[in-house]
Specification:
By secondary structure, the chain is of the alpha+beta class. It has 14 helices and 17 strands. The protein has a seven-stranded antiparallel sheet with strand order 3-2-1-10-11-12-13, covered by helices on one side. Strands 4-5-6-7 form a four-stranded antiparallel sheet. Pfam families: PepSY_TM (PF03929).
Length: 482
């Protein structure tokens, strides 16, 4: 049995040793420089004020023109070539010119360049040297699945002092991502290595999923066998424990015993990051739950919703369904918005956010045991935040299942059943140390992450040295026999 553990640990650790070192080292980089993404604050900063004085067609007419029966959301935004409706449905996004109802795909590179320039200027960036860099389905920073409905993407290089690049959707004309030279450089030695994320592999999600899942599982087996062997290979001498090894093996043995608990939890939780529904729930709504929370609204009623009734200087108007009722969300600034319920031609103002009474009335139809919603407070064990800073997120508890509703947008952020709540602790908390206490003490959390990952990297290096020596011995023996 011990022999089998030794051989398993040895021949898994030799090829995986460099990967262990890279995982720990890149984990430190990722803590300081995460993978590039566009925040809601950045997106909204690039929006222009809507021109509602022109004769714009209704969102219902845009739906008909786009041939979309069951949208999720409709947004009206001002683009460089005029106002457009962006219609989001399951798996796709469509843009329709708000005045002519013509398709608003971005087929002209010059239009993409103009959109990028105006957006960059509104964000305070220097766009004087902007130029088209590429038009691709995938590159290293746009491989995530959330970009699928926007492909292909125009990549525009601003050629500014930060090396900024902006990505424009060819489907909707929205700016969906921006990166800087600093982010790209550090992510090549951070997230790209850590997630085994080269474009050629990651653009095929199924292949990437299988490859990384099996590699991670092999790493778990290497760590578990090592953890089992560590105590077994100790021996007692004169009332004290000592190692059976010398040299690098001794360092590896003692370092493994010291960091065994962290190593196991970090490697296992890293493997669980690739779970994707294999062992734990995904947090997605079922069709019946979605039918209750979204409902089946009559989108044709939007034909009677006058855009001129929108108060103030809006930069974005959004329509969404919640509980079967259509809502209009007029946004003047990131934290300034007004939600109204549309009933035919009437518009009843709700306020800045959805009210608890409406959320409770809708979620009561999910199950008979749903309690009244409560706001998720800072420091909660399951932290959820709205896309609008300061907007309440409501937790509705229905038996053993929780639903988190963003009061700013009506979106259900996640469904947490017992399986998903366990996953939150076993993956997210253990892998990124986002325990509420540590989140409240950012410096302590950073010190722990850097210290523990550094310890893990040092320990893994000792294993690499041992593995390299073992391979050299085998190579020398083979040459001697030959």
């Amino acid at each position: 049995m011990i022999r089998a553990l030794i051989l398993t640990h040895r021949w898994l650790s030799i090829p995986l040793g460099p990967l262990f070192v890279l995982w720990f080292a890149t984990g430190i980089v990722m803590h300081f420089v995460p993978f590039p993404t566009q925040t809601e604050s950045e997106r909204f900063a690039g929006l222009a004020s809507l021109d509602l004085t022109a004769g714009l067609r209704s969102p219902a007419e845009a739906l008909a023109a786009g041939g979309i029966d069951r949208p999720i959301r409709i947004r009206l935004m001002q683009r460089a070539d005029g106002p457009v409706y962006v219609i989001t449905a399951h798996g796709r996004s469509t843009a329709i010119h708000a005045d002519t109802l013509a398709a608003a795909d971005v087929t002209d590179p010059n239009l993409a360049l103009s959109i990028a320039r105006t957006t960059a200027q509104r964000r305070g960036l220097d766009a004087s040297g902007a130029a088209i860099a590429a038009r691709d389905d995938y590159d290293q920073w746009t491989v995530p699945n959330r970009f699928d409905s926007h492909r292909p993407l125009y990549r525009i290089a601003l050629n500014d002092s930060q090396g900024s690049e902006i990505y424009v959707s060819s489907r909707t004309g929205e700016v969906v991502l921006d990166t800087t030279h600093f982010e790209r450089a550090w992510n090549y030695v951070g997230s790209v290595v850590h997630w085994i994320y080269p474009t050629v592999l990651r653009k095929d999600w199924a292949a990437w999923n299988i490859v990384v899942w099996w590699l991670s599982l092999a790493a778990v087996m290497a760590a578990v066998t090592g953890a089992l062997l560590g105590p077994i290979r100790l021996r007692r001498r004169k009332a004290r424990l000592s190692s059976r090894y010398r040299g690098w093996h001794l360092w590896h043995h003692w370092a493994g015993l010291v960091c065994m608990q962290f190593l196991l939890t970090w490697i296992v939780s890293g493997w669980l990051s690739m779970d994707h529904g294999r062992l734990f729930a995904t947090g997605h709504l079922t069709a019946s739950e979605d039918a209750v929370l979204t409902g089946a609204p009559d989108w044709t009623r939007l034909a009677a919703a006058p855009l001129t009734a929108v108060p103030g200087e809006a930069r974005e108007i959004e329509w969404f369904a919640f509980g079967g009722r259509l809502h209009q969300r007029a946004r003047r600034a990131l934290m300034q918005q007004q939600i109204s319920v549309l009933d035919g031609s009437a518009r009843h103002i709700v306020g800045r956010f959805l009210q608890p009474a409406e959320i409770n009335a809708v979620t009561a139809h999910l199950r008979a045991d749903c309690a009244r919603s409560i706001e998720v407070e800072p420091g909660d064990d399951h932290p959820f935040t709205s896309e609008v800073p300061g907007a309440p997120v409501h937790r509705v508890v229905c038996g053993d299942t929780w639903y988190h509703v963003d009061s700013a947008s009506g979106a259900v952020l996640e469904k947490l059943d017992p399986s998903r709540r366990a996953y939150r602790w076993l993956y997210q908390a253990l892998h990124t140390l986002d325990f509420p206490t540590l989140l409240a003490h950012a410096t302590l959390r950073t010190l722990l992450i850097v210290g523990l990952c550094g310890l893990g990297a040092a320990f893994s290096i000792t294993g690499m040295v041992i593995g390299w020596r073992r391979l050299r011995l085998l190579g020398g023996a083979s040459r001697h026999i030959g």
